[in-house]
Design a protein that fits this description.
It is a single chain. The chain is α/β, with parallel strands linked by helices and 166 residues long. It has a single domain (3-127), classed as NADH:ubiquinone oxidoreductase Nqo5 subunit (Beta Polymerase, domain 2, 2-Layer Sandwich). It is 22% helix and 27% strand. It is built from four helices and seven strands, in the order ααββαββββαβ. The chain has helices at residues 3-6, 13-20, 45-56, 111-122, and strands at residues 25-30, 36-40, 60-69, 72-80, 87-95, 100-102, 125-127. Strands 1-2-5-4-3 form a five-stranded mixed β-sheet, covered by helices on one side. Strands 6-7 form a two-stranded parallel sheet. A hairpin with a 2-residue loop joins strand 3 and strand 4. The protein is elongated and about 55 Å long. The N and C termini lie far apart (70 Å).
Length: 166
């Protein structure tokens, strides 16, 4: 028996389920914890999360974070069934020139503050968020500190760092 024939391809439960329901998703395999990671089209995000909540009992938004990837900003959602501890990670990319993703506050109230943090740090607009204002930086802060192209302010508290010894 060759190695190719003996390889067992694990069918990923959530990817199959969402693909069968005709959602636009792409499997990203599993993370180190064994949770399925799925790239989701942002236009399907609300429908997918509502469906997973109803049919797969994914009633807990365990965390939401955002990062800058090569050509996009990416929101990452970890959903969990608190009774079975079954989990799935959804990733949604948005364009750097006009970063926007539908808000999940109508599905998961805990998304409120987490989306505000992603907005404050990366500038992602969460459409239909009830109060999308800065949460960590002052209201008049310029720019988004976690963007690669961010240059912080220079003032009495924030001076350029000198690597030269005087």
């Amino acid at each position: 028996m060759t190695e190719e024939n003996s390889a067992v391809v694990k069918e990923l439960e959530f990817v199959k389920y969402l693909t069968d329901k005709k959602f636009n998703v792409e499997s990203l395999g599993e993370n180190a914890s064994g949770f399925e990671m799925i790239l989701v089209d942002k236009n399907d995000l609300l429908a997918i999360t509502k469906d997973l909540m109803r049919s797969k009992k994914m009633t807990l938004l365990n965390y939401l974070t955002a990062v800058e990837v090569k050509d996009a900003y990416q929101a990452i959602y970890h959903l969990e069934d608190p009774n079975t501890h079954s989990s799935v990670v959804l990733k949604v990319n948005t364009d750097k020139n006009s970063p926007s993703i539908p808000s999940l506050t109508s599905v998961f109230p805990t998304a409120n503050w987490l989306e505000r943090e992603a907005f404050d740090m990366l500038g992602i607009i969460f459409e239909d968020h009830p109060n999308l204002v800065r949460i960590l930086n002052p209201d008049n802060w310029q720019g988004y500190p976690l963007r690669r192209d961010y240059i912080g302010p220079i003032d009495e508290l924030n001076q350029p760092v000198s690597l030269m010894k005087n």
